[in-house]
Amino acid sequence: MGKQARERTLDDVEARAISRTMRISPQKLNLVAATIRGKSVQSALADLTFERRRIAGDVKKVLESAVANAENNHQLDVDRLFVKEAYVGKSFVMKRFRPRARGRVGKIQKPFSNLTIVVREREEAE
User: pLDDT tens across 47-68, in order?
Assistant: First the structure.
């Protein structure tokens, strides 16, 4: 018994990892994701290791998870992987208020983001 397996939406030479509810705005997260799009996995990991932004460590963990999914679940060659897609989506926003002068309030918004990284195996050059 159990439910039917869903059809795979990616190609056979692709793997992905998703991180949901990362505590950063999508605009800031997209700046880090843009630095790794299209790069080889080794180059992207090196860039994220030395990136100064706070969120780069979390992006690196998601990329390592995508590489592990490619290796263990889909038997892809780790040395030939590159970042095909790295896209950011908006998640929920926590809303807080801070008291201000004369009975007014200052609105504080704490946005969350979703990150999806897709890695793909390069075709052999012939």
Answer: 999 999 999 999 999 999 999 9
